[in-house]
Design a protein that fits this description.
The protein is an alpha/beta fold. Helices cover 32% and strands 26% of the residues. Bound molecules: oxa(dethia)-CoA (UT7).
Length: 323
């Protein structure tokens, strides 16, 4: 049985760090409020010349280096983003070009904060379906460019960055002891559109628009939706929380992360948290957190790793994989 195994990972962050203290001089907020309500202490903000594609390409190069591969080895690039460089062409083909590739194919995936989970599930399906052997899966965002910097309820929450993994086809036994993606559980419900959306777009206003969120409403749904797909992932594999080595959640809010882990009985020592450093980087947050924990040796070969996210749409999902 073909499995999609993580062979390399990499990240890219903008040069500029924006601290909570600096935000205090921009909107009516405080470091104490932001830390207490979200766990965020700082975020990175893209400057001139830094875009979703430039950050995504940098993360992709780092992932290829770590895998000991070159762009020539890649068949497919999937970029999860809601902040593309242009309405079209896709940021994925922009990155393909930056990597000097003119073979293979590349496309974007738009599932907002769940984008990386959707992209991993898609890459796995393409690999198992025989349509690609090696896939670059990238989560890259510049949410700073769609924030209303006068709205304190949203502008303190998000940041920019990118993370990438190389997924590679490997022969497995078809058991849960195999390395690679074991199951993906994806969900969406468009009825929740108004709770988290961007108030512009090519076919409506003809503008890019700004992010709008009813934070409390999103919060109310988050823990329940996240835990539902995680339970579905365990049910699909016959594995349980006791088998889990690491939970790598989407990094939106420390309270959502802790609440989900607690509801499932996952000890907090097994949860990777980077929201303090990066803020909410939407589709980039999971690969950034994954790279942090794999890079410092916490996640080791053979570990059972759970990825989960919930975001605009609403979309939500979980991927269970063996590292
Ligand atoms: O990435 C996926 C999707 N996004 C999320 O998962 C985000 C989900 N939501 C959240 O993380 C939280 O709801 C927030 C962090 C956005 C807000 O936390 P909360 O505990 O739900 O606060 P709240 O919205 O209920 O606001 C509490 C108070 C309000 O004042 P009043 O009405 O109680 O007087 C807000 O006006 O905090 C006020 N407030 C702020 N105060 C200082 C809102 N934003 C700020 C701020 N600084 N930046």
């Amino acid at each position: 049985m073909i499995r999609s195994v993580v062979r390399g990972f990499g990240t890219a962050l903008p040069k500029r760090v924006l601290t909570n203290r600096e935000l205090e001089s921009m909107v009516d907020t405080s470091d104490e409020w932001i830390v207490q309500r979200t766990g965020i202490r700082q975020r990175y903000i893209a400057g001139e010349g830094e875009t979703t594609a430039s950050l995504g390409a940098e993360a992709a190069r780092a992932a290829l280096d770590r895998a000991g591969l070159s762009p020539a080895d890649i068949d497919l690039i999937i970029v999860a983003t809601s902040t593309p460089d242009n309405t079209f062409p896709a940021t994925a083909v922009n990155i393909q070009n930056r990597l000097g590739m003119s073979h293979g194919y590349a496309f974007d995936m738009q599932a907002v904060c769940s984008g990386f989970v959707y992209a991993m599930a898609t890459a796995d399906a393409y690999i198992r379906g025989g349509m690609a052997r090696r896939v670059l899966v990238i989560g890259a965002e510049t949410f700073s460019r769609i924030l209303d910097w006068t709205d304190r309820t949203t502008c303190v929450l998000f940041g920019d960055g990118a993370g990438a993994v190389v997924l590679e086809a490997l022969e497995g036994e078809g058991t849960v002891a195999d390395r690679g993606v074991l199951t993906s559980q994806l969900r969406s419900d468009g009825a929740h559109r108004d709770k988290l959306y961007v108030d512009g777009g090519p076919s409506t206003t003809g503008t890019v628009g700004h992010l709008r969120m009813e934070g409390r409403e999103v919060f109310k749904h988050a823990v329940g939706m996240i835990t539902d797909v995680i339970v579905a992932a365990f049910d699909a594999t016959g594995l349980s929380v006791d088998d889990l080595d690491w939970m790598v959640p989407h990094q939106a809010n420390r309270r959502i992360i802790d609440g989900s882990a607690k509801k499932l009985g996952i000890p907090l020592e097994k949860v990777v948290v980077t929201v303090d450093l990066h803020g909410n980087t939407s589709a980039a947050s999971i690969p950034l957190a994954l790279a942090a924990a794999a890079g410092d040796g916490r996640i080791k070969e053979g570990d059972l790793v759970l990825l989960e996210a919930m975001g605009g749409g609403f979309t939500w999902g979980a991927v269970l994989l063996r590292w």
